[in-house]
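Here is a typical protein record:
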Amino acid sequence: MEAQNSNIKKTASAGLLKSAGLIVIVILLSKIAGFLRDIVVANYYGASIVSDAYFYAYQIPSLAIVILGGMGGPFHSATVSVFSKLVKDFSIKPTLEIKKLFNTYETFSILIFGLIALICFFFPEGVMKIIISQASPELSHMAASHLRIMSPVIVVGALLGLYYGILVTYNKFLLPNIAPSMLSFGIILTLFFSNGDKEGIYLALGTTIGAFLQLLLQSPVVIKLGYTFKPCFDFFHNKNFNEILELLMPAFLSSTIGQIGIYVDIFFASGLAEGQWTAYGYANRIFQFPVGLMLSALLVPLFPLFSKLVAQKKFDEVRYYFNKGVGSLIFVGTFVMIFIFICGTDLISIALERGAFSHNATLMVSSVLFFISLSIIPYMFRDSITRLYYSFNDSKTPFYIAIGSILMKIIFNSILTKPLGINGIALSTTIITTINSFLLAILIRKKISIGYHAFFKQLLKILLCASIAFLAGSLLHIILAKFFVYTFVYKIVSVCLIFAFSLGVYIALSHILKVEYLEDVKEKLENKFLKREKNV
């Protein structure tokens, strides 16, 4: 029986790896589209009052389209958690009960977020004055103009979360991860026709167009699955919808609390020098490129699996997949962290330093990126274990911890922003992420024993390997800087050489110390390669 369970785990693990591999490719393409968008935006606006105004205003629609409607957002999580238990057969159309639930959910989303969108459209000046009270009148007025244009995105984001959840429930992982590239495409396309726009109006318009393109890309597949929209106002007597609300409301409030944390950051940043909030935004998106890629690739297929295994009370398998998943994330993420420490400035210069984006802007982004990157390990652990809480239908614990983080955010920002500027806000975020991850790790033991002893033993090995790889990569960086002229081509060659060398050191040491996550990946790659050879 034990051998049979082991074979089942290996088969499921291989299927999971295959799904994750496909998702990685798709998300990578989407992330590349996002980077191309950032390059275009940086070229047009640099780190200026215009870019600050846009990024301040974008925080409100981003709450809907990225945080609520994105991977792991409350709409996506609540949809997957409930619908994955109701849909028994993917090959047939949904029952009337499931369709009614879908329509009730969509009607509710349109009404609630439509009201918020109308407030932002008709009263943008008042909304922005609350958020950036320390900003100059010019910056506040410009941000309000951007918010009015982007207000429809608030409704679109909620629908994206619902559609995303439906597609993931049906194991259609690729399309929801392709769709976000439409936002980037909309911005790039609109800026191409901007004709020297100096107010950022086309930037805001491109965001709205991109959000609708994202929705239009997912809608036909959702309809084909049998989910057509028909207004339904059964908000109080639908048991399944009540279950969604039980999950959705605390998770929504938790995400909103997280957004309030960003608004706290905005409050402190709005009194800083021009371009600093833009620098924070670029650094965060560079950070999210590899981290978001890894989290999406693994957590998208893992979350519905967690939900089903918890429902079946197969806790040994939940523990197995959680430890493997988080361990693999941290193994890769730790190398990403040290590589950013070594080559962060060069990477930013290669990607963004052109047009209106100056070398001073590069240095600003680089320093912020350093402090944000310190949070890679706790960030990935926090996001992973939060999905585990959701699988147990517990969104209250993450919510309560998020509430406490707001007070901590105010305290740490007050202490760190004055001496460190925007870097203080980044360091404050890292400290709070670390505290949150520890609290979540401790409290999950009320539901399931994770087995941290073996996990931390592997983590210590990973950190040792990473430290030596960091020293080796830093030494190579110093040597290359002494013997070569600092040009654009040099930066590209230098980054590639340092990446290959430090990765080689990291992998070699991980092999010597027998880091099990390396062996897992190696085994899967060897099996896949040998299988292909046999097929040939």
